[in-house]
Amino acid sequence: MKKFNKVILSGIVVLSLTYSCETAEDKKLIGGLIGAAVGAYVGSEIGSGIGKNITTVLGGSLGYLLGQKIANILSESEEESFNNKIKETLDNNENQISSQWSSDEDPTKNAIITPLTRYNYKDSVCRDFKKIVNKGKKAVEEVSKVCRDKEGNWVVIETL
């Protein structure tokens, strides 16, 4: 649990650095680093022994690519709008009932959010969901696991 708290605290620090970045290149780099950190943490939780080391490296590599791709697709205001749509979808949609999001800034940017499962884990309501973010012919797909915290907010536990 202490390890998880350190990861959350590190994430908050990195996010605050992200919003202070001045150029799009800075934001891409920070987005990639965040993705790599999350991917490495998830990878480290999967394996054991030599396999654990391999999954940590693979998780970090995969996380970096996804983080950087999403940072390349959405602006800050689009990310906020998209996150609101994800929350609304998780709150209101049944499993396998998708919602669509479209950017107000760029008609070529859109996404589909599909809740996959709902379950209870350690006294929390959790959901797995898939999101596909598109910009023209470019698409990034992620599956995430979220659970409600004590205040009722959705918290990302894992993204693959």
What does this 3D model show about the protein?
Residues 42-66 have low confidence and may be disordered. This protein has a five-stranded antiparallel β-sheet. The chain has two domains: 1-73; 75-160, no CATH class. Helix 1 (2-20) packs antiparallel against helix 2 and helix 2 (24-46) packs antiparallel against helix 3. The radius of gyration is 16 Å and the shape is elongated. With 160 residues, the protein is of the alpha+beta class. It is built from four helices and five strands, in the order ααααβββββ. The protein has helices spanning 2-20, 24-46, 49-73, 76-92, and strands at residues 99-102, 109-121, 124-135, 138-148, 154-159. Strand 2 (109-121) and strand 3 form a beta hairpin.
